[in-house]
Amino acid sequence: MKNILVENILESISKLNLLELSDLIIKIEHKFNLKIEEKIIETKKNTFDIFLTDIGDKKINLIKIIKEITNLSLKESKDLVEKKNSIIKKNLNKEECDEIVKKITNVGGKVEVK
Predict the structure, then answer these.
(1) Taking the domains of the chain in order of start, what are their residue ranges?
(2) Is the Cβ–Cβ distance between 19 and 70 less than 8 Å?
(3) Separation CA 81–CA 45 (nearest Å)
(4) Distance of alpha carbon 114 from alpha carbon 110, whole angstroms
(5) How far apart, in whole angstroms, are the C-alpha atoms of residue 27 and residue 64?
(6) Strands (DSSP E) along the chain, which ranges?
(7) CA 82 → CA 18, 34, 56, 73, distances in Å?
(8) Can you name the residues that pair with 111 across neighbouring β-strands?
(9) Which of 1, 28, 54, 89 has the fewest C-beta atoms under 10 angstroms from its C-beta?
(10) pLDDT tens-digit readout, 73-86
């Protein structure tokens, strides 16, 4: 019986427009003393990975920057730059990530942060 009730509720919710759905969520938060927004903030990603997506036209300068960032040898840095969508660094906090992205983009490289 509970499954039927849940299915009926879900079916009714699916017929709501976005404003009605937003209002419903607020009412549920108040009714059951939930703080959904705070929980979303807590589960927000705290670490980031940086992937090199494009090397730009200053390949040598980019290799030097990658060498500095990763502490790899010159050959390893060159190989990393030449590899498509290579990961530059993992598990960075927001500040470290922003600093590295700035360094790479300053020499013409493009990155993707995940």
Answers:
(1) 17-44, 48-113
(2) no
(3) 26
(4) 13
(5) 55
(6) 48-54, 86-92, 110-113
(7) 46, 49, 11, 14
(8) 52
(9) 1
(10) 999 999 999 988 88
Identity at 33, one-letter amino acid code: N
Q: How far is the C-alpha of 90 from the C-alpha of 52, rounded, in Å?
A: 12
Range in 41-55, 71-85, 92-106 the model is least confident about: 41-55
Q: The tokens of 112 are what?
A: 């993707």
Best CA proximity match to 106, nearest among 75, 49, 68: 68
DSSP-assigned letters across all residues of 80-108: HHHSTTEEEEEEE-HHHHHHHHHHHHHTT
CATH topology of domain 48-113: Ribosomal Protein L30; Chain: A, (3.30.1390)
100 phi/psi in degrees, rounded to 5: -70, -40
Whether pTM exceeds 0.90? no
CA–CA dist 81, 60 (Å, integer): 10
